[in-house]
Write a structure and sequence with these properties.
Blueprint: E1 7-8, E2 21-24, E3 30-32, E4 37-38, H1 76-101, H2 107-121, H3 129-135, E5 154-155, H4 160-165, H5 170-183, H6 190-198, H7 213-218, H8 221-226, H9 235-253, H10 262-272, H11 278-289, E6 304-305, H12 310-325, E7 344-345, H13 348-363, H14 371-375, H15 387-401, H16 404-410, H17 415-423, H18 442-453, E8 457-458, H19 489-502, H20 506-536
Antiparallel strand pairs: 1-2, 2-3, 3-4, 5-6, 7-8
GO cellular component, one term: RNA polymerase I core factor complex
GO molecular function: RNA polymerase I core promoter sequence-specific DNA binding; zinc ion binding
Region (Disordered): 130-160
């Protein structure tokens, strides 16, 4: 290394490097702190040359063109306009996936486009006229065929007004897609969106790879970070963004959001959780009893909790009905008649075993890793991984983090680099299976339902006049689970599956169920208070 030590210079800029400190390498070139080579070869001092020469200075006449120093990255208004166009292109990819890959109605494109226009309109004077015109053009968003903290339970917007006026993010794009789904009342849950994102089927993680290189190279570094999330999307962040959009549209544009498509969603929950049909009517009646319309109603617009989310309300009503009719504690309860919903007994041992068997078969004999597991891997986990799991992770890393088109455009071709790459060829990875490790296809779901239902047995009917001293009726000795640690094994397995399908975290589901149970207790207390005066009279 040169004895002069590190020197300070202009920002490196290679691959968005912000380093300004350079050191001269042994080959005579300057290198930044991150190892990027800068400039041309420097003429170092020859230590064996003892001759001295007169020091002369020459200066080239400054040309007018030298004053025009063009930056590689856009700044200010131009950077914001480019960022919005990049975000709109990613949103287009997301809608394309929902419409073309998942078969959702084509009207979803129009709905999301209109919501996007309203979201951009909230930026007011920050968006140039050119960008507004671009956003209103349908061809820029077309998916036609010719286009190739407080507590965890608090989901609130501390500075919602500031966030609404700020620039949209990838979470806003996901929120707009889901709001379009709600508007069309489609039986799609946030759990589906989370699953597609985790499997890298829907653009979110490393979404910047969907942009052309020319657009990426002009984006400033802070916009790169926004468009390039590497972590797993959490349900809490998703609901925060979605609720902010809902309330913002309601306050600014008077949009009233429809309720969830309750019949189709309950039917889907019963099918995917292999539950008896008796729970359908019970869930509907419980929702009516609690006066749920399964639409977002926030009394305090600045503070929205889990109990206000219609998705949490619906799945919580179903779970409460399961606990009433098919409890997890294993205690026998005897119905009064054979026509009651609780006249059958669901074997939770078989239910848990069948679901575990399906997951094991989905992983295969090689115990393949899920994308969520590979994203959360640490350095120490490598030592416990099997050889095929290492191969799977390297394929996942290649698809997720290596950007070959961008690398080829940024780095000049050289024979040495090509020869080096030829020594370690990277083969095309095998496409992931259509059946993800987090779900099953329709045939497997039907097989699972049959396996569980064929073991449903009738419960013994006990009349009032029969001489049973110690007998429990359905709904008696009801168990409350306030925290996740209180759940028994069968209940934990059921809660995990229900939360995955509905689109809630495990803790969010536990708390939403507990809120619903407390609301039922409040309703029962109110009803008892109304009955007491009439009985006294």
């Amino acid at each position: 290394m040169d004895e002069s030590g590190p020197v300070k210079g202009p920002r490196c800029g290679i691959e968005n490097c912000r380093s300004r400190i350079y050191e001269q390498g042994e080959d005579g070139y300057l290198y930044c702190q991150n190892g990027h080579r800068r400039g041309e070869l420097l003429r170092g001092k020859d230590e064996d040359d003892f001759t001295t020469a007169a020091r002369t200075k020459t200066r080239r006449k400054r040309d007018d063109d030298d004053e025009r120093d063009t930056s590689k990255y856009f700044k200010g208004q131009k950077a914001l306009d480019l960022y919005l166009k990049c975000l709109q292109l990613i949103l287009r990819h997301q809608v394309w996936f929902l419409v073309r890959e998942k078969g959702l109605p084509a009207e979803l494109e129009t709905v999301v486009l209109d919501l996007w226009a309203l979201r951009i309109a909230q930026l007011a004077g920050r968006v140039s006229g050119e960008s507004q015109g671009y956003d209103s053009q349908s061809q820029a968003f077309s998916t036609s065929e010719n286009e190739s903290h407080s507590d965890e339970d608090k989901i609130r917007s501390v500075r919602r007004e500031k966030k609404v006026k700020g620039s949209p993010t990838l979470l806003d794009c996901l929120g707009l897609c889901y709001l379009g789904i709600i508007t069309l009342r489609l039986p799609i849950t946030p759990g589906d969106i989370h699953k597609w994102i985790t499997e890298d089927k829907m653009a979110y993680r490393r979404a910047i790879k969907h942009l052309p290189v020319a657009m990426r190279d002009r984006l400033p570094a802070y916009y790169h970070a926004v468009l390039d999330p590497n972590g797993i999307l959490t349900f809490k962040r998703f609901y925060v963004a979605m609720v902010d959009l809902q309330i913002g549209f309601e306050e600014r544009h008077g949009i009233l959001w429809p309720s969830l498509n309750v019949p189709l969603l309950i039917y889907r929950y019963l099918k995917e959780l292999a539950l008896p049909l008796e729970l359908y009517d019970a869930t509907i009646k419980l929702g009516d009893l609690l006066e749920y319309d399964f639409a977002l109603h926030a009394e305090d617009k600045g503070r929205v909790s889990i109990r206000h989310l219609p998705e949490a309300q619906l799945i919580a009503c179903l779970v409460v009905c399961v606990k009433l009719i098919y409890p997890f504690d294993g205690v026998s309860r005897f119905p009064l008649t054979s026509s009651e919903p609780a006249a059958t007994v669901l074997d939770w041992d078989i239910w848990q075993r069948e679901f575990a068997s399906v997951k094991t078969k989905a992983r295969g004999e090689v115990l393949a890793l899920t994308n969520e597991e590979m994203i959360g891997l640490k350095e120490k986990d490598v030592f416990s991984m099997l050889p095929h799991q290492l191969d799977q992770y390297l394929d996942f890393y290649q698809e997720s983090f290596l950007d070959e088109p961008h690398s080829e455009a940024a780095e000049p071709k050289s024979e040495f680099r090509s020869a080096l790459y030829d020594l370690f060829p990277v083969h095309e990875s095998v496409d992931s299976q259509d059946n993800s490790l987090n779900g099953t296809d329709d045939a497997q779901k039907l097989k699972l339902v049959r396996a569980v239902h064929k073991n449903v047995s009738p419960s013994r009917v006990v009349k009032e006049d029969e001489g049973f001293v110690e007998r429990l009726r359905p709904g008696e000795a009801y168990k409350y689970y306030k925290v996740a640690e209180d759940l028994p094994e069968h209940a934990r397995a059921f809660y995990e599956e229900a939360s995955r399908i509905a689109g809630l975290s495990f803790d969010m589901l536990v708390k939403s169920v507990f809120y619903t149970e407390k609301k039922i207790e409040k309703w029962r207390k109110t009803r008892r208070d109304l009955v007491k005066p009439s009985s006294l009279a």
